[in-house]
């Protein structure tokens, strides 16, 4: 029997706590830069954890309003991020065209991170420890959320008037009269977060990274002549 199938079957009746311990054990054994969170086994256990938690999740009007508020805040943040990126790119392009005496080359990118901050022993908010389930989920949020800016500004995805509420799978009925932006749909659809996890997202971090260089070539090594 395939080892992944065997593990998956063994975890069919695991509690949420047991699933989280298994996930963290696998995660700690792998180099995180090798994307351990994408392994088939971890993904299957995350889905089972999500289903366990969602099955007991209680929907209220306050919960729905909170979800919709997060949906709007992510979208508003993206709009500002893209405006800042576009303005900075235009500035650098104009300097390049004008043969700016310093600017030879530049690199520009934008990213957005979603975080679940928790209280530490001193009552201060901060990122959870890496060896906890929310430390692990923060890494997943970071990886998925960083894809949003480049994906959302393709015409087929990022349209302010394009409603993704009917693409929310089995939860579509909860949002049939609401407006869901692509970013929220993307996060919900690709991370296997339970609704109670999504409610814990309490920080949106966006940034435009730019570096530009002056490159002075003064000697051609092929001809050995000064330039």
Offer a concise description of the structure.
The protein is α+β, with helices and mostly antiparallel strands and 227 residues long.
Q: For the largest beta sheet, what order do the strands appear in spatially?
A: 1-4
Please count the helical segments.
8
Listing every helix as H and every strand as E from the N terminus to the C terminus, the arrangement reads: HHHHEEEHHHHEEE
Low-confidence stretches: 1-5
Output the radius of gyration.
23 Å
Mean pLDDT: 81
Silhouette: elongated
* Main β-sheet description: 2 strands, antiparallel
The tally of domains stands at 2
Fraction of helical residues: 40-55%
Secondary structure: elements and pairs:
Blueprint lengths: L2 H8 L5 H14 L10 H16 L5 H37 L7 E11 L2 E2 L5 E2 L6 H13 L2 H5 L29 H9 L4 H5 L3 E11 L5 E2 L4 E2 L1
Helix pairs in contact: 1-3, 2-3
Could you characterize the architecture of this molecule?
The protein is an alpha+beta fold. The protein has two domains: 3-55, no CATH class; 61-213, no CATH class. It is 47% helix and 13% strand. It has helices at 3-10, 16-29, 40-55, 61-97, 133-145, 148-152, 182-190, 195-199; strands at 105-115, 118-119, 125-126, 203-213, 219-220, 225-226. The chain has a two-stranded antiparallel ribbon with strand order 1-4. The chain has a two-stranded antiparallel sheet with strand order 2-3. Strands 5-6 form a two-stranded antiparallel ribbon. A hairpin with a 5-residue loop joins β2 and β3 (125-126). α2 (16-29) packs antiparallel against α3. The longest helix is centred in the middle third of the chain and has 37 residues, at 61-97. It is elongated. The chain starts with a helix and ends with a strand. The model is unreliable at 1-5 (pLDDT under 50).
């Amino acid at each position: 029997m395939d080892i992944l199938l065997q593990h998956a079957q063994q975890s069919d009746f695991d509690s949420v706590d047991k699933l989280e311990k298994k996930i963290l054990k696998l995660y700690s054994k792998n180099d995180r830069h090798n994307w351990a969170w994408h392994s088939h086994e971890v993904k299957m256990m995350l889905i089972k954890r999500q289903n366990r938690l969602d099955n007991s999740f209680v929907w209220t009007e306050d919960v729905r309003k909170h979800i919709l508020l997060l949906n709007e805040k992510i979208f508003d943040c993206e709009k500002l991020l893209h405006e800042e990126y576009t303005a900075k790119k235009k500035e650098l392009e104009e300097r390049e065209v004008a043969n700016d005496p310093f600017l030879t080359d530049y690199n520009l990118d934008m990213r957005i991170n979603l975080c679940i901050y928790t209280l530490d022993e001193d009552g201060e908010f901060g990122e959870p420890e890496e060896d906890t389930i929310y430390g692990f989920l923060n890494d997943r949020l970071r990886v998925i959320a960083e894809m949003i800016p480049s994906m959302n500004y393709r015409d087929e995805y990022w349209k302010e008037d394009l409603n993704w509420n009917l693409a929310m799978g089995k939860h579509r009925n909860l949002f049939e009269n609401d407006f869901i932006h692509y970013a929220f749909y993307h996060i919900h659809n690709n991370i296997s977060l339970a609704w109670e996890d999504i409610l814990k997202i309490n920080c949106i971090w966006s940034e435009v990274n730019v570096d530009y260089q002056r490159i002075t070539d003064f000697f051609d090594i092929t001809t050995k002549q000064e330039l």
